[in-house]
Fold these 3 entries.
Entry 1:
Amino acid sequence: MIYYIGAFGLVFIGLYIILTKRNLIKVIIGLNILDTGVNLFLISVGYVREGTAPIFSRGSGQVLMVDPVPQALVLTSIVIGVAVLALALSLAIMLHKHYGTLNLQKVKEQKW
Amino acid sequence: MEILPLMAFGGAIITYLLGKISHRLRDGFAVSVSWLLVVLVAFFYGTQVCTTYYSGFFGLPFILRMNSLSWLFAIMIAMLGALSITFSLSYMKGREKTNFYYLMMLLVNASMLGVVLSGDLVSFYIFWEIMSWTTFLLISYNRGPAIAAGMKYIVMSIIGSISMLIGIFSLYASYGTFDMSGVGAGIASASSGYILFILILFSITFGIKNAIMPLHTWLPDAHSEAPTPFSAVLSGILIKMGTYGLLLFMYVIVGSKLLFSLGSGILSFQYILCIIASITIVIPTFIAVLQTDAKRVLAWSSIGQVGYIILGIAFGTSLSFAGGMFHFFNHALFKALLFFTVGAVAYQTKSRDLNSLGGLAKRMPVTFIASLIGIFALIGIPLTNGFVSKWLIYKSLILEGSPFLAFAALIGTWGTILYSYKLIHNMFLGQLPEKYKNVKKAPLSMQIPMVILSGGILLFGILPGIPLKVINGIGTSLGFESLSVTMGGYTSETGALNIINILAVMVVAGVLVWLFFRAGGKSKRVAQVSSYGAGASVPTDKYHYTAEFYDPFSRMIKPYFRDVIDDFYNWIAKGARETFDHVRHLYTGDVGHYAIYIVLFLAFLILVSLVWFL
Amino acid sequence: MVSPVLLIAVPLGLAFAVPLLRLISRRIPKYIPPVAMLFNLVLSVSLMSSTLKEATVVSIGGWDPPFCINLVVDSLSILFSVLIALVGFLVSIYALDYIEMGATENTEKYHMLYLLLLVGATGVVLTGDIFNLFVFFEILCISSYALVAYLGDKAGVESGIKYLIQGAIGSSLILIAIGILYGMFGSLNIADIASNINSIGSIALFIPLALLVTGFGIEGALFPLNGWLPDAHSSAPSSVSAILSGIAIGVGIYAVARVIFTLFGVSSIFPFLAILGVLTLLVGEASAFKQNNLKRMLAYSSIGQIGLIVFGLGIATYHGISGGLFQVVSHALGKSLLFMAAGYMIYRTGSMDISALKGIGERMPLTSIAFTIGAFSLVGLPPFVGFASKFLIIQSALLKQDVLFFVLAVLVLLATVIEVAYFLRVCQIIHFKEGNNQKKEDAPLVALIPMFILVSLIIIIGIYPNLVFDFLNSAASGLLDKLAYIEGVL
């Protein structure tokens, strides 16, 4: 249960950062925190009390294991998160090159 | 019968392609295709055909239908189309984008044919829409102020189409069919509230196209800014498509018995339509008197004359119906003729301003005579067809005891006389200004349509029995009682109209006048400028009293006859523009705002679903 | 019969081969997307007839559903697949010349990203597993973030980063929803979840539904989630705008539809969907009205069309959903055509302002005719395909004999008036305003051919919609008949 609270806490922190911060780097960090929260949530879904790592090894037999599917999902999700992060950071560099600032309030040429 | 729309549309496309090869080839082809259509339509006289020609549109059957009503409209469409294309041969010389022009003219023709020949509501709508957008493109052809005119037209036309689409679908939802006869059978058993609802929806559409007040504001701009041969088609037949639609819905689908039972006395649908029609006769006629652009006079005049047509049709007796239909026929003839004459004058003098033209009667005699005949028809002088149709309308109004409507019709004629005379005086009579001294006659390809139309006006004026017979056939097929039509007019218990007698009387009177004229002394010819100036010299060019014609009268009525409805629509359009400008400010450009939108939407969804299920 | 897996595998392989092939010759990369998409087109069309009878299910890895990742190829998927392949193919031919213009460096990155976008889109529509949907959806989104900012100019980068932020929020929301669904049902297979969905009380269901609709709706451009769209579609290079407007948002709507209809199947949400659609439509059309920037106007018009599609889907009868799907087709055809034409028009006049388009009808006659026909089709004038699709939607709305839908249908038609006003105004400016009388130079042949293929499709399908109507009907039943879908898979 504590994991769910932690996960949703991270999600809300991430969302809060994206909604209110003006610096682009902070927003990207917020995005990352959001991703992390979601990953944590996914893994917690698969948690089985008193379960061990879901690896079949010789002599493991009828041991209780945590659900491996969410772990696979999370692996994929982390990779996606890294890709998005890389793209975001490179775009941030280019944005700074064009605008000279990372303040999102000032980057408002495309509007209406 | 499928050959008619096929040839019309195919002819349009081939004309466009031929135009890429050679202009002469294309001109010749366009003219021959349009006249061929006239001949083909004439073949179908008296037939009643109904065929399903296409089922590829979601499996809905498209039906082509020819009956006497469609035939009359079709022959008018084909005739006017052919005449306009003939007129365009010289009108379009040396102008740009002529391929596009011919393509659009033929497409408008073809789609109008499709409208009157369709037997089911979907193909009616499809052809109606094609007609609308091709008209829009053609109106905008002239650039400049024509662009705003075209935009006004298409927006109002689309609003009409929306109304029609809603009506068509609601009919489909109630009766399960798009077929006109099927809908007619179904609607015979509907409640009068529902019939009224449907009729009002369709009346909006057809009223916009017909330019009945207060839906007329697109017409003056559109008709004056369009190229003249197309103005002739517009005024002559395109606005009558609205009349066709009204006829279709009032008499063919709903049926005269059901129609007359809608409401009672003053408040009936029919009577309200008559009142609207009479307002449409009076007000635009007087606005026409105030205009100084020749084509604008004709445009407002068209609105007024359409009022006569609607009045005749809506009034409900067989006499008035015949009068209204005959007036539709006549108006096409004489309005097209008048637009052609104005177009010929504009082509030769490059001006449409009535305040500066004058005295062209000697330089362009054929145009002058044609214009004179057209004016006579418009006013309704005996021996022209306009006389017969107006006579029929007056007579039926007076017979049935509607003094107000008759009064409106007669005032309309008074206004018509005023602006018609202004038109012909300012263009042809009076003094010839210096700059127009060398104006040539109109070219042959312009003269031919004018002569044909004038001949038609006189022919049908002297022998109105020919068209009246056809119209009578339409009337009886729609449920009116038959008139006994003779070659020279008609007879009935309340009196007869026999033009041949009138012709005989006028010929005798003319002979007598001529004899007296010969027997009297000769008169001396004087130059126009040799009048007494009390010592001062008479300025030759400024001695021109066509400028500010009707000035005192104009000053009297001008404050009352501003087009307030146009201002009202412009106000609505402006309000809409402001609102839309505010809407787009939602997209502020700040990504924080967008993220807030996302979160708010999510919260809203969750909240709504929680409330829903608790 | 060829396996539908190739629809995803071949373009994916070719996409990754692009940088390798560039080492061989500099000119090869730009021909690879057309080849890949042609292959997809041919394969999809050949699969069309077999999927009309029943859905094809392909299990990857040899496991049985519901334990495996499977592709479910029913007529809805094939419809989208054909559309993606067709538009992708035509736009890639257009891009043969368009991208090379003014390119200062090697352009193989564009072609690779373009192909990856199409792979993502095809994957989304073909898959039957919700996490797989998410993965392909991410491929689609990330490629589009990069493509929007491809030119590296000020506008592109700004739009790209904004698009990225909003899209990333959406992805996270989807992932949370997937987590919740997995926690509730223990399976990731759409059919499996769909068959068990009624066993949970409806209150708990709404949170994942809301999350999924919001997440997919960001890419699918629903109001108010579409703040990124006007910027992205106007700053991207025109071939990218064509693909984004035509295909990417359609795929987003596919995802929303799949979630609502097949996964959840809750019928009380349909009026809400219709209202949301009309709201999107009205906001989109109203915002497009006073635009001066041509591509921004087209972007807002896309929002409007998506609203119309969602309205059609919200009618939730066979006719209504067919209408919505038909509108996806006509929007894809029309909007890609418009963006392709606009691309060269902007290039020739050097400015994105609508007033700069004065008189371009003389300089670029064929392109202007193509633009005009695209505009007429989008507005819904016969005899073009846009009329047929709008006809179907309004007909089904009014057939419902419900006051709400009557009012909504009237609002949709009023939005048409707004569309007419701004689109036809642009057409008038193109053809009937005085230009600078420069010499005639039209778009190059490579660009004109795809435009005119689209024009002929618009006219042919517009006159003879029966060509696609049966297929649309079966696609609609694929969406509505949840049980048939489940049975087909499990």
Entry 2:
Amino acid sequence: MPLVVVCIAVSVTIVDRAVSAQQTPPATPRTPRSSAPVDLTGNWVSVVTEEWLWRMTTPRKGDYTSIPLSDEGRRVADLWDPSTDGSCKAYGAGGLMRIPTRLRIAWRGDDTLNVETDAGQQTRTLRFDRAPATGARSLQGHSLAEWEAIGGPPVLRNGRAIGAAPPQGGALKVVTTNLTEGWLRKNGVAYSESASLLEYWDRVAFPNGDVWLIVTSVLSDPRYLVNDYTTSMHFKREADGSKWRPTPCRA
Amino acid sequence: MEAHTVSRVTRTLLAAAVALLSAASLNAPSFAQGQAQATPPTMVDLAGSWTMSNEEELLIRIDPGPELGNFTGFPINAAGRQKALSWNSTIQAIPEHQARPHPAQYSMRGPGPNFHMGEIIDPVSRRLIGYTITGLFENANRTIWLDGRPHPSEFAEHLWNGFSTGVWENGMLKVTTTHMKQAFLQRNGIPSSPYAVMTEYFIRHGNLLMMMSQVDDPIYLEEPMVRTQTWRWNPNQREQPIGQVEIAEELPDLKPGDVPHYPLGTRHPEYADANGLPFEATLGGRDTLYPEYVDRLREMMRATDKKGSR
């Protein structure tokens, strides 16, 4: 009999805990910051292992290797004046992440991520509030951000939607519009005001302890490009901001 | 009779206790989470045909390929640099090197590749136990095992595609590849040793597939080499036939035992000269990969009387 009593007591306790847990008042609404599936904040540095020639130096006038320029885009690129090297136009959202730079990423409030660069001293504002673009166009444009489960949205195979697994992990999806004309490279290869930028921001960790931020970027520009311009940039996490060295661009 | 009654009551109460415990386990997620509960990892469907959609380094990843002496962007050490400077493209004409596939350390980089990712399904459990990647250069197709099998002994044979296992990590497929052959990281002789280990992340965003690779090579690199590639899902893509290569004698004057190479101490300044760069800057190395090198490069270019803007 004592065994039976113990069993019942334990069971009642467990059920009581379960019911209590389910009756807990709903938590306060989750903000983009509190619901972040991945932590992108901190200090990061570009590691230029790809397109070194075109990123570490100012390419020669007319060198638009690998960029799917339209005739109009080529015409504009050929107008570049080398004396404008260092212009802030090379630091617009469409080209900024390809500049060798350090990044400082931090939350501003609960629904905005700030991305600062020391090269060119730019700040990108990634907003989760879904507010439409208002006001004048700008170099960094209007960036709407949202968390997206890796793999999602549901993908198609043979024309049919594949059943989505429960989301796990996640990435940051950013769509940027309302841009002024800027440069994809320091030699004036340009994107137009009609451009829009889609980005996915991922974070991964490797066995040697290195943590990386990857920004996959798809730039669409019906005026200066014949195809989407797809690139991916990687930034290694740094312990602190001791190597942060702000360098302005030329207005 | 009384004993029988007690026994019946005991059984009834025990049954009630078991029922309560069962109910509790079904209805107490917060409690269950405190226990060692195995949550199956989220698997993202990577199967299908993928077309390279990354515009970076197009002329390097396709033909004509990288220039001799262009080691920019690679964290090679002195040994790697020495081996790369002695590499002579004529070596590809000797019979032993003709029709060589690309190694796993490079094959996801180019040309293309436009590949198909296929599922390996266990015939009994119907579980996904692996992926194949087919369509790689000269059939150096890869298999990524997802069933938890160990990597072979360190004495096992090294292959062009190495030996790859994968695990799911927050919706990303993390792949570890060992047992790769001594080969190259770039098609201009930048070497990769058989001791290299490659880690890759395959990350799917809708119809985009991004892959980041890190090659850790204690012999030829100062720090691991990382690269990223992007593909777009393309259900209409069909694999190209495997290139048919006939081994032929292309170097009739080569003496038996000779290996085409440049002697130690050779410099290849052509790439630097053609692009207005200091020769030193083209030799690669860890320090050349970071933003602070931009200023140093500018100073070197001024010192050598080359224009800061090429």
Entry 3:
Amino acid sequence: MTSIIQVTNLSKQYRIGRREVAYPTLRDALARTLRSPLQKLGGRTAGDEKIWALKDVTVNIEAGEVVGVIGRNGAGKSTFLKILSRITEPTSGRVELYGRVGSLLEVGTGFHPELTGRENIYLSGALLGMKRAEIRQKFDEIVQFAELEKFLDTPVKFYSSGMYMRLAFAVAAHLEPEILLVDEVLAVGDSAFQKKCLGKMRDVAKHGRTVLFVSHNMTAVNQLCSRCLSIADGRLVLDGKTAGVVAAYLQAGSGGGAESVWEDIRRAPGNENSKLHAVRVKSDGRIKSEVDIDKEVEVEVEFWNRRPGARNLCVTIDLLDSNGTVVLSTGTTPAANALPEKWFDKPHPEGLFRATCTLPANFLNEGLYYVTVYVVTLGPLTIEVDAPHVLSFRVFDTGVLREAGGGGSWAGVVRVRLPWTTEFVPPQTIPNAPEQQIAVEMKD
Amino acid sequence: MPAGDTSFSTKPLITIQAGKPWPTLQWRELWAYRELLYFLTWRDVKVRYKQTLLGGAWAILQPLLTMVIFTLLFGRLAGFASRTGGVPYPVFAFAGLLPWTFFSNAITNSGNSLINSANLITKVYCPRMIIPGAAVAAGLVDFAIGFILLIVLMFYYRLTPGWGLLLLPFLVLLTVFLAVAVGMWLSALNVKYRDVRFAIPFVIQIWMFLSPIIYPTTLIPQKLRFAFLLNPLTGIIDGYRAALFGQPMNWVELTSSTLITIFAFAYASFVFRRMERGFADII
């Protein structure tokens, strides 16, 4: 049997030089034409550096498979999806698709702010490849899913961002192609709606459609996908069962260490406003990759602020367990900070800042944890630094939470020492009930 | 609909590979996406006059006011008014301004259509030609509204069309194809060279004065007539007048316009198809 998607030696090259010159002008083009014969003699110019966004990717995907695609920012995942959706052409290689393709690379593609919700459903549906009859047939279902019956005839420019996202996803969720390509679109909306979207995706998968799902959300990938591809530097590095690929990806990404330092600021994660300098895990005042369960853990984030006077800068960390599930997310906003925050809304001078978060002792369960670091500017939200799982550390069980002789590990993501009280409630008599029933009650 | 049955054909539905040096026009694909063309056109029409006081009235006001201005300026010039073939100057000018307004708006809108749809181009696949195409098609509504005013003017001046009127659909088609050709070409260049955006208004201004819109072709010295044949609008605009006012059709001009339009369309679509591969990467 033929695979529904066949990718052979797929490569895509970008010129970095050209990217920097955002809008080449005719004058440049003329000048280049005049220079070009000389250029051929003199070899390549410095501005003409080329990178492979995708290199020799070969993979077959069977009908009905739900495949996750993971990798760091800039690894080539999105390029891969863009080629499969025919948005951009490969430099070499070949893809054969044996089915109708629907791609969902952005929520709300083609929405026009001046048009009403009703009109946008038709427009967006058509852009995503639905026929008019198909949209009409699913119209009520879409409206119901978005929960926007009352606002159908309001221009979407008056919608809140949540409403906008709901409507946009509702249209996309009702696409019914044989092959569905999805890029990181579940990262929007409130958590209730995200859950609904995930549910819808699961339905889509159950109906035997082939899905390619690009995401940073390891929990979603774990839940949805049976198979997973891991892409790094444009190459397909792993292809297999999701759990194994995710674990290996997290391990590789963290460098296995308790400290990541970027000495060369040009290679550090971040943008022109902020750059990451270092992330460390400390316990007992020392950098440690293995920490005792009964010791506090400090996560230290150092970043360069390159924009004098920047305000509302917030350092956020996500703590992930070895499956990629986010255990907690915390940051330096005054609302989330247990201590009075000194810098958040003050103008930050240019230079290095260090934010330190203390995780309490006797809090995390034993196991491997990964740290994802963001630096964001709030209101409106801009992500300045996005560094997924830059380091890892292992929480070690010292046996402090067990009595002598009580072996085995505890269940749960966290293992917190909580206040318990036990009282003796003096009963008059123990009710005289048959043995069996008591046993059942105890099981509950 | 159980998509689970995997009885798909052994021939791939879609093959993706690096582009061929000589791209084809992808008629079948364009046909498959005709509904999207309709929706994009419909969007442009709906959005154009949103949040304006006069709304669709602008479709009439634009050529009407231009007509009034030109009538005041040139209506009394002996050279202009006496060579219109007996047609009063205001309606003569309007008959030229109507297709011209359509044409100039069409190439402006479609010339800028791709860069205004950057978010679509980087996120959705569709035959890219649909985008400048829809921008031209959206102007047809205004064009039709303008025709109503033209009919009113013709009644007022008691002008009756002759058999030439049968050629009108062909002339409209020719105008549309020429506008699509120019618009599509400009839009593709615009993606790469943003100079185009600034050049368009300038080109339009010059083109207007080089076409027999506010003056009759008969005003042009015989020596220069040949040069005017190279402007496809000459034959088209004169064609409209001949069709509407029952004047003799200038077949030489019309044939020349038709041939140039066909050539322009073929060339523009070839250039467009060659350049569209890079759109998503450089827009």
